[in-house]
Design goal:
- With 498 residues, this protein is an all-alpha fold.
- The chain folds into two domains: 16-26 and 33-61, no CATH class; 76-491, Ammonium transporter AmtB like domains (Ammonium transporter fold).
- It contains 17 helices and four strands.
- The longest helix has 31 residues, at 442-472.
- The chain is globular.
């Protein structure tokens, strides 16, 4: 009787506890009890089981949902927008005023126009095909150039995000695209300083289109293209795969432009009266203002290259202050000792040399390393625009190679040394282990790969382009126009009306 009573009680309880049993797994029962109860329950309580089945089905747990896609942080997005504006500021009017003040008064407007026009030209080309060739996969040629899948910004809209250097952290792809646009524009504009006061405006525009396509875009792809932290190990650009570090453009921007400038100065030749007539800067006030705007804009250039508003961006900003200050002081004091007087042009030129040198290192070295890097660049670049330039005999009008080419080489190699944590650097982050790797002197070899590739690639491309343009449409204005000045001869305007 006791067994029968217990069985009846169990059958009655099933109608009230079915829902609860369906929500969580019941505790495991001893095997003897299961066998004793199972047969009669299944047979006698069929109606109850059928009634409980829909309830159990409805209460079954839903399949696990996929993790939500990461959402851009508003702070990161805002910082990238500000950084983009800062880089535009360092080009127009920063670079334009810096260069404009260094030429003679009769060529002031020509330099301003060249920088302004190049910025506009490259901005359009970047969204048409430049971004796609620099930052998409290129199939069999992926090591050296991208593809055309994002030509005309196909698929790039405000809803699409791209990963930063932190796994799972994203920013809008459109803000990354326009930030990189400003890098491309200023790189091409830097070159004009080498042959200022004597180049045809039409030839300059043709050269800018071709050099942007065949030198800048491949270098940007080789150094900066990769799949991001979540796709680390996928095919990447040639120099990225080599492990070359370039935080904000030492190879892509400065060595690339500096070597092109040297080739241009050699192919175009010296200005009429060079070494005989006075070619002193006509407005050092404008040059000082331009240098100051360059320094301010460079915070977007360097700190913005972190792609996030984090501590690394702060480190890049600090390094951009102290390296620049150290280079300016080093140039000024060295010049003071040599010439007996410290010049404003010297301290401004030294500041630019420091900005150039710290660019590839900004997020990788400590502040003390940045100071050392800046001080070395200040002294060596002073030699580059004086001793080296005189020894080789070329006329680089505004010392683009002496400051950007040499300063970029110093910075790129110095990054490979000063990234060492033992010297205050951050170390090299290994995305395969998601940790900082042990430092190795092989990093210097990787940096030399970057320097050598930039020198050879830009040198060959630039020389060939200058020669082709010179043979077809001519690079240089007629001598009478050069003597008159490009402001009136080319643009029909004057910077100053007395």
């Amino acid at each position: 009787m006791k067994k029968l009573f217990a069985t009846l009680m169990l059958l009655g309880s099933l109608g009230f506890t079915g829902a609860a049993l369906s929500e969580e797994a019941p505790p495991a029962a001893p095997a003897a009890t299961t066998e004793a109860v199972a047969a009669p329950v299944v047979d006698a309580a069929a109606p109850v089981a059928e009634a409980a089945a829909p309830v159990a089905a409805e209460a079954a747990p839903a399949p696990a949902e996929a993790a939500p896609a990461p959402v851009p942080d508003k702070g990161d997005t805002a910082w990238m927008l500000v950084s983009t504006l800062l880089v535009i500021l360092m080009t127009i009017p920063g670079l334009a005023l810096f260069y404009g003040g260094l030429v003679r008064a009769k060529n002031m407007l020509s330099v301003l126009t060249q920088v302004f026009a190049i910025f506009c030209l490259i901005s359009v080309l970047w969204v048409v095909y430049g971004y796609s060739l620099a930052f998409t996969g290129g199939g069999d040629l992926n090591s050296y150039i991208g593809g055309l899948s994002k030509m005309f910004l196909a698929g790039v809209d405000p809803s699409v995000n791209v990963e930063t250097f932190s796994k799972g952290v994203v920013i809008p792809e459109m803000v990354f695209m326009v930030f990189q646009l400003t890098f491309a524009a200023i790189t091409v504009a830097l070159i004009v300083g080498a042959f200022a006061e004597r180049i045809k405006f039409s030839a300059l525009l043709v050269f800018s289109v071709l050099w942007f396509t065949f030198s800048y875009l491949p270098m940007a792809h080789m150094v900066w293209f990769w799949g991001g932290p979540s796709a680390y190990g996928d095919p990447a650009g040639f120099l990225f795969a080599k492990g070359a570090l370039d935080f904000a453009g030492g190879t892509v921007v400065h060595i690339n432009a500096g070597i092109a400038a040297l080739m241009g100065a050699i192919v175009i030749g010296k200005r009429v009266g060079y070494g005989r007539d006075s070619m002193a800067p006509h407005n050092l006030t404008a040059t000082m203002i331009g240098a100051s705007l360059l320094w301010v804009g460079w915070f977007g250039f360097n700190a913005g290259s972190n792609l996030e508003a984090t501590g690394t961006a702060v480190l890049a900003m600090v390094n951009t202050v102290v390296a620049t200050a150290a280079a300016a002081m080093a140039w000024m004091f060295t010049e003071w000792m040599i010439k007996g007087k410290p010049s404003m042009l010297g301290i401004a030129s030294g500041a630019v040399a420091g900005l150039v040198a710290v660019t590839p290192a900004a997020g990788f070295v400590g502040p003390m390393g940045a100071i050392l890097l800046g001080a070395i660049a200040g002294v060596v670049c002073l030699w580059g625009v004086s001793g080296l330039k005189k020894a080789l005999g070329y006329d680089d009008s505004l010392d683009v190679f002496g400051i950007h080419g040499i300063g970029g080489i110093i910075g790129a190699i110095g990054t490979g040394i000063l990234v060492n944590p033992a010297l205050g650097g951050t170390g090299v982050f290994d995305y395969s282990t998601m940790a900082v790797a042990e430092y190795s002197s092989a990093q210097i070899t990787s940096q030399l790969w970057g320097v050598g590739t930039a020198v050879v690639w830009s040198g060959v491309v630039s020389f060939v382009l200058f020669k082709l343009i010179d043979m077809t449409m001519g690079l240089r204005v007629p001598e009478e126009q050069e003597r008159e000045g490009l402001d009136t001869a080319t643009h029909g305007e004057r910077a100053y009306n007395y």
